User: What shape does this take?
Amino acid sequence: MSSTSTKWLVCGIVNLTVCLVADSCAAASAQSSPTNIFAPASEPAHSVVGLSLFVLAVCAAIFFVVFSLLVYCLFKFRRKPGDDGREPPQIYGSNPIELAWTVMPVLIVIVLFLASVRVIKAVQDAEPPPGAVEVTAIAHQFWWEFRYPTIGVVTANELHVPVTNSSSPASTFIRLLSADTDHSFWVPRLAGKTDLIPNHPNRMWIAPSETGVYLGQCAQYCGTQHAKMLLRVYVDSPEQFREWSERQTRPADVNPAVSEGRHIFEMNACVNCHTVADTTNPRDSKFGPDLTHLMSRDTIAAGAAPNTPENLRRWIENPDSLKPGSLMPAMGLAPHEIEALVAYLETLR
Amino acid sequence: MATDSIALYPTQTNSRRPLVDQLHAWITTVDHKRLGILYVLYGLLMFGVGGTEATVMRLQLLRPHNDFVSPQVFNRMFTMHGTTMIFFVAMPLVFGFANYLVPLMIGARDMAFPRLNAFSFWMTAFGGLLLYFSFLGGGGLYGAGSAPDVGWFAYAPLTSQTFSVGHSTDFWTLALLVSGVGSVGTAINIIASILCTRCPGMTLGKMPLFVWLSFVMGGLVILAVSPLTAAQAMLLIDRYLGGHFFDTQAGGSAAIWMHFFWIFGHPEVYVLVLPAFAIVSEVVPVFSRKAIFGYPVMVAATIAIGFIGMSVWAHHMFTIGMSSNANTFFVLSTMAIAVPTGIKIFNWLGTMWGGKIELKIPMLFCIGFLFQFLIAGLTGVMQAAAPFDWHLSNSYFVVAHFHYVIVGAILFAIFGGVYYWFPKVTGKLLSEAIGRVHFWMFFIGFHLTFDFMHIPGLLGMPRRIYTYEPGRGWDTWNLIVTVGVFFQAVGALAFAFNLLWSYFFGEKAGSDPWDAWTLEWSVPSPPPAYNFAVVPEVRSRRPLWDVKHPEDPDWKYE
Assistant: This one.
């Protein structure tokens, strides 16, 4: 065998390894992604990342030791040109060596195991502190329903929670339910994912320490439009959160100027799935997102498009054009009806 | 039984029988070698199909908001790709190797139950046809056909009649049920053959490691496939007889399906990787010119992997809300399995240490295996740390990890095995030059695709999405991943070309082209129907070493 092929093989392997490590570091350190798991902004994401970096470091160390042995073997023990063709000394094994490379991995495993258990217990067995915000998240094909049982808010796809700090501790405990298939709640900068499984209530919590918008999406395949079941979490200052929840608990505005649109909404199947809680309609649980304060949201169709009049028109005319496979049907409305309907929806502030 | 006893075998004549007779002979064969070849050819054919499905997915994910295929088609592609690659590529390939090689290595003239063997192969083969018939018949009489779109682990309740109308899920269920019967049949056959048909002198402690690993693999198949088959029966009862096992709307449990599936699904990984270990454990010693290092420890580690492998399944379920105690248990069991696996890697390195390594193509693929399996194992340890897995689970990191195992480790070992045993099977050597093109193209493509696939996972990209939003830092990585696919495709085509070209025009191999030590190299290539003219008698783990080195035989040391 030529020595060049060994060199090629080793060079290839070394290059790839270096590239991979360099790229991972670049990806991990840069704030290049709004969903980077290594840029935590909340507990439990902070402690999870702490553990993750420790595990990564241990694994990287093991990799470099074993990889170096492999490379050394390939260089040192390759059949030399001009070899005498005799078989090398046959060695059948060695008990002390076997013992050594059994005990060392056992010790490493014990350390990694204990480090993991500490975080598991701290995250999973945490009890809600006084002042914690309670939210029930109900996953649907293919959108999120958020209910705040203590403050009486019902909204969709955009979860608002208060920031938590030492002056106003307010972590958020989320009860996770599903109305149909399996889903998973994953906002990487806030917490790891937890599944929403029908008939199997789950729980998770977050304690975000920086205000801002955090992106995520459904992380368990849930049907045709799993990809566009996006998720936005708004971490508000305590004042913003109070203001937001007060507005959300008010009934919808009733504006006579858009009564035509309101009529279309109520006389078509829209009203079977969507609630607009005003003076005549109670706030009720239905198949589709609550629209009482639709215009307070930045996106429509579970984050598939910005909430603009143009997108609302497209969405109502043919939901499949924005989100193929969405369960909302096209109602076959005339253009002037869609105009009136969008005008009505735009008053739902 | 030695190389010089080749003279005992009559020279094989190229009997030219009519094509229809030859085909009839292949279809009705109960010869373990022919069935082994059928298994491998079936696996390679389906590999082309599954690879095409992967290519469709990668083209769709080339850039954000791409519309190469619709979400419906994409969802069918990943379901069919996963199901095909596991049940109709990987399983047939590893069964094919075991079928062909185990009797030859233990000095037997066939498997213990030749007709069960044929039955099992055809069950698997027809299971695959049933799965693909869903493209025509999945929608039933009422609509156009459609393949299943529930994902290869088909979580409930997406498979209930409420969410999966038509018959696509039924084709999936029945295909797995049918091929599962075939898998259990072959597993029973492998175990019975190893226990009952070994040649004189071959005690359990003198079996080649390939045989030991196939034995443990057989045991795992019986333990793992049975719960899957049971779950498929329960799903059918749910869908057609009003059962509520997984029907969450009537009090059934989605989590029970997950447990049933993964108590199959995780041991299945070992079902596939143990035969890869088996190949590497034969190739590495021969091309290092040394006996395997630490044979008894290798056997013990294999058995340990078999047992521990049955107790790790719920590490696929760290995010479903199990109690902290349950999660703790599965962290420990999963990390524990890294110990015997690590021991295996060290023993292969110990075998190379002090040897005279020859980088022929089979060894090249095994070096690729060692390197990639090391990384796959370490990313596995990362996911065993449950809190880390709360992020990694169902992200592209997991997809990269298990492709590292299944492609980087298992498929590389199988390629190595094909280059190593092709001369025995056909009597012709595979071309070394085309082999190098195959290796390098596949190696480069594999690393472009699967190294860079880890990163979008760390940046929050979930698996099974037919498209993604721009501005999440995923675009470049997905582009590189897709580019890698074309290198892999060129590698795979070079391999297919090599098989055909070398079969017709390859260099004659002779009975023992690698100067190897196990019994299959003592018979002509290809071996005659009855394998051994005289049933051999062995005194050590390397009977041909004893023959070639009468002054220094192995049995003096074992």
Observations:
- The first strand of chain A starts at residue 42 and ends at 43.
- Chain A touches chain B through 103 residues (CB under 8 Å).
- The mean pLDDT of chain A is 90.
